[in-house]
Amino acid sequence: MTLHRFLAACRRQPADATPVWFMRQAGRYMAEYRAIRERYGFLDMVKTPELAAEITMQPLLAFPLDAAIIFADILPLLEGIGLQLTYEQGEGPVIHNPLRSSADIAALHDADPRETAAYTIQAIRLVKRELEGRAPLIGFSGAPFTLAAYAIEGGSSRDHRLTKALMYAEPQAWRDLMERLTTQVSAYLIAQIEAGADAVQLFDSWAGALAPGDYAEYVLPFVQKCIIQVRAGCGVVPPPPIIYFGVGMSGMLGLLRQTDADVIGLDWRIYLDDGWAQVGPGVAVQGNLDPHTLLAPWPEVRRRAADILDRAAGRPGHIFNLGHGIVPETPVDTVRRLAEFVHEYSAE
Length: 348
What we know:
The structure is a single chain. Helix content is 49%, strand content 12%. It is of the alpha/beta class. The strands form two sheets. A seven-stranded parallel sheet has the order 1-4-5-6-7-8-9. A two-stranded antiparallel sheet has the order 2-3. It is globular, with a radius of gyration of 19 Å.
């Protein structure tokens, strides 16, 4: 059976055209999403499998995309181990009992994500039935460091001061926390694969705040362990592709190769061919158009997308994506035209 072009690219195999999907492709830029959002809170949408499945399918029905990604959020996984999460208007996610000491970390619960995040697992099953094989489905989780940073800071942070302070001052507590989160993330991704996810992505949204040496010492071993555990525990041969994506990590792509992920996501802060050279052979790459480019006139969007495809030079193993998620102000027609252009230009 011929692999879908997205899965072929993940495995660095030739495809008839460059596959394309977009991070945050289901979201506020689409009127269909906003119509649901007017009636439901964000966590209600995430935790209602039928709504999450409907939202997941919206961009697949609207655009010629090569993969769906389950509509979910990285932070509800933390609720299962005892953290209290809300989303505040204009403030984003808030952890009301942040982790500030070794005692806080020791008091966390052990939990099975199959139970604590059962809503996302069920949403994956629903989407798989609706897709009927016409596109692969991507599952995802926050990576251990990014989850730790949210849990310690209590929400978003500009400098991750509290996270770094705990990491440096209490290295054993840090390791205990990262072990707990690695276990959670691995079990969560395995459950998503068991439910039907064809690939999974680890989002390390905040790891770019670290110095390379700190990433290598305090974070990389846990990413490696997570990937090993997912491959060993998912029960699929060969295991589904694993994508690792971090923001602001263009200065440590050699380290990212050591994660042993099948695909490394590149943000927009580096030329795609330079990033691929730093990652090295034997790894696929995903990216890397600046999301704000989609606010430009179409000729400029086209020019920049063509430049990325030219830098990829038709080599097997490139998945076209943005360097981060779609921004809410993005015109829907630009998303449609970009997906069509990537297919047409790369097929030529």
